[in-house]
Design brief:
Layout: H1 2-8, E1 10-19, E2 22-30, E3 36-45, E4 52-60, H2 64-82, H3 95-104
Antiparallel strand pairs: 1-2, 2-3, 3-4
Length: about 110
């Protein structure tokens, strides 16, 4: 039975985002019936024992549009109504910028 469960879900695509002390994983998986779904996992390291705590959301195709609409609406509400003067782009830097910055300052 365990072998069936392991083989039932095949990973098709994965995107990892490091965000401070958290890491998010966006994974596309398929079932044997070639149905696709997304798992969103948040992973954080516990200070007490060094183990990782994971929280997972399963997002199915029938909810993709509703989910993305609600997420976009929520983020836009914060950006537009609650924090209109905040520069959210300050977090949009890549590693090449960081490496160049470090090289210039050493």
């Amino acid at each position: 039975m365990d072998e069936f469960n392991r083989n039932d879900k095949q990973e098709i695509f994965s995107k990892k985002i490091r965000a401070g002390k958290r890491t998010y994983f966006f994974d596309v998986k398929s079932t044997k019936g070639k149905d696709y779904f997304i798992t969103i996992t948040e992973s954080k390291k516990r200070f007490e024992d060094g183990n990782f705590v994971k929280h997972k959301i399963f997002l199915y195709k029938e909810d993709f549009n509703k989910f993305t609409e609600a997420l976009n609406e929520t983020v836009n509400h914060i950006k537009t109504d609650l924090m209109p003067d905040y520069n959210f782009d300050e977090f949009n830097h890549d590693q090449s910028f960081d490496m160049n910055f470090d090289e210039e300052n050493n």
